[in-house]
Amino acid sequence: MTYPEALQELVEEFQDVPDKRERLEMLFELAEEVLELPTEEWSDATRVRGCQSEAHVRVSIEDGLVNFLGAADAMVVQGLMGVLAIALHGLTPAQAVLIPVDFAEEMGLTNTLTPSRSNGFRNMYDKVMGEIRSGME
Amino acid sequence: MALRDQFPILQREVNGHPLVYLDNAATTQKPQVVIDAMNAYYSESNANVHRAVHTLAGEATEGYESCRTKLKKRFNASKAIITSGTTEAINLVAHAWGRANLEKGDAIILTEMEHHSDIVPWQMLAEERGIELRYVPVTPHFTLDMDAFSHALEGAKLVCVVHTSNVLGVRNPLEEIIEASHKAGAKVLIDAAQGVPHSTVDFTRFGADFMAFSAHKMCGPTGIGALLVQPDAFEEMQPFMGGGDMIETVTTQGSTYQTNEHKFEAGTPRIAEAIGWSAALDWMETFDLDAEHTRLVNIASWVAEELRSMGMSVYGRHGEDDAAVVSFLHPTINSEDMAHLLDARGYAVRTGHHCAQPLLHRLGISGTVRASFYVYNTRQEAEGLVGELREIVEKFA
Fold first, then answer.
1. Can you tell me the mean pLDDT for B308-316?
2. What is the predicted pLDDT for the residue at B198?
3. Residues B29-58 pLDDT 10s
4. Whether residue B257 sits in one domain with residue B317
5. Which residues contact A11 (CB under 8 A, 6 or more apart)?
6. % residues pLDDT > 70 (chain B)
7. Cα separation of B289 and B201, whole Å?
C-alpha cells in the first residue's frame, strides 16, 4: 500500500540522505513529534518489551481517531515513535492498521523483519498496532 | 600474509565506512583457513562419523576427532567433550554431574559476575532438587568479594565461577578459588568463554574439575564448544542425552554406554564445525597469543583512560591478565543511541545487559556500551573509536 502523505514525504526525505549519521540526526529531531507519555504514567502495561532501552507507549481512540503517546530513553527509539506519530496523525483505527512496518527500513534506519532483543522498533510497532486493533473490537 | 589480512570480512564496508569490528566478546571473526576448512569438508568429505567404513566416513571421523585431539593438546586435558558451546557445556555439567551428585540441602556457589548461562542452569537444578545457591558479591573495584567467597564455601559441593567477565574484562583469582574450593571438598566449574581466547590454560595443572568454552570466541565457528573434565569428575558423570553414538549396545531390555567422551555426544555431532574449529586451533598456534594479549590490554587501557577524560564511566580495571574489554556509559547520551551513531561510521560495538543482569544490578546500571578487542584489531582502530566518541560527545551531550 502507499503510506499516508506525511509519512511518504518523510520516507522520501530520508531516502535522499545517503549518510546514516545524518539520517540518525534527522531522526533525533523527530523525537519531539510524539506526544510525550509522562514517566509517572509508565507501567508494565505501557512498556515495550524486548527493547534494550526503556520505551513506553499508550494508544487510545478519541473521537474516532488514533491518539498515540510515547516516550523512550533512547533518542533513536523516541525518534521512531515520532515517525509513527506523524504516520498515525488524523487516522482512524481502520486506516492506521494498514500502515506496513516497512517504513523504518525504507528510511534506512533499522531492520524491521523480525522482532528481537535488538529491534525495539519492531516490538514497538507490533504493540501499537495490537492496541489499535484491540480498540477496534 | 599479515594476520589481519587473513580475515576477509574485515575488508568490507559498513554504512559507507571501513568495518571496525569491536564486538569480539560476543563473537570473533573467522580467518580464511577456517572458512576454507569447512567448505572443503562439505565439498569433498561430507559423511557421518564413527560408523561406516567407507573413505568419506573415515575422513569425516578423522576431521571431527582431530578437533578433540587438538583441544586436549592445547589445554593439556585428558577428557574433552564436544558440545554446542559454553551454554550446553554448563548445562551438561548440571544434568550429567549435578543430577547424579547433588541432592536436597546441598549448596552451589555462583558469583554475581556470571553470565546468564552459568546462572540459569543452576537455578533450574536448584528448583528441581531443593539445592541452595549462594552468590559471591562483586566489590566496587569490580572484583569478587573473596571474604564472602570464603564464608560461602562452608558445606558447598560445587563452585561455578567465570574465568573472565564478559562485561568487565576482569580475570578472577581462579587459582586461589580452585585451591580453596578443593580444600573445602567442592568441585569447581570454570566458565572460560572469555578466558581461553586470550590466554592458554593448562587444564591439568590448573586443577579445575570442569572448564567450558566456545569456539566462536576464538576464531572458530559458531555452534560448537567444549567441556574439559578431569578424570575423576568424568567418572562421576551420568549420561544425559540418549541416542546414537553414545551407546555400546542396545537391546529391548536396555542399553550400555560408551566409556569415553562419546557417552555425552549423542546423535550426529557438529562435524563441519569441529573441522572448522580444528583449523582455528591450528591457526591460533601461528602467532604469540600472550604478546597479542599484552598489546590488546594496553590498547583497552588507553581507550578506557581516554573515555574517562571525556566524562564517561568505565567499568573495569584493565590489569595485565584482564581481557581487552571496555564497558562504558556516558552520563547523558543513551548507550543505544551511542551504538547507532558508531554503527553509522562502521564501528560495531555491543550495548545492553550483556546477559549479565545480576552484575549490572550490582553496579546500579541497566546496560553499558562495550568495545571488545581481539587479535586483528589495531591501535589505529582504537584511536578512530576514541575520535568518533569525542565527536559524538561534543555534538550530542
1. 96
2. 94
3. 999 999 999 999 999 999 999 888 999 999
4. no
5. A3, A103, A106, A107
6. 100
7. 12
CA distance B273 to chain A (A): 26
CA dist B367 → B192, B313, B397 (Å)? 22, 12, 18
Q: Does domain A5-136 have CATH number 3.40.50.150?
A: no
> Which ipTM was obtained for this model?
0.89
Domain ranges of chain A: 5-136
Residue B29 lies in a domain: no
- According to DSSP, residue B382 is labeled H
Question: Which pLDDT belongs to residue A111?
Answer: 64
- Number of structural domains found in chain B: 2
List C-alpha distances in Å: A84 to A103, A105, A131, B9: 9, 13, 14, 35
* pLDDT tens string B202-251: 999 999 999 999 999 999 999 999 999 999 999 999 999 888 888 889 88
Last residue of a domain, one of B284, B313, B345: B284
Task: Indicate which residue of B67, B160, B219, B355 is catalytic.
Answer: B355
Same domain, B175 and B67: yes
Chain B residues within 8 A of A50 when measuring between CB atoms: none
Q: What is the pLDDT of residue A112?
A: 56
- Asked which of B284, B305, B328 is the last residue of a domain, the reply is B284
pTM for the full predicted model: 0.93
pLDDT-based confidence at B107, cuts 50/70/90?
very high
Residue span of the structural domain in which B136 resides: 34-284
Q: Which residues of B touch A19 (CB under 8 A)?
A: 16, 344
Which residues in chain A have their CB less than 8 angstroms from residue B351's CB?
A: 52
Same domain, B345 and B214: no
DSSP of B348-376, one letter per residue?
Answer: E-EEE-TT-HHHHHHHT-S-EEEEE--TT
| Pair (B209, B354) in one structural domain | no
- What's residue B215's pLDDT? 98
Interface residues on B facing A, Cβ-Cβ cutoff 8 A: 15-16, 334-337, 340-341, 343-345, 351-352, 367, 396
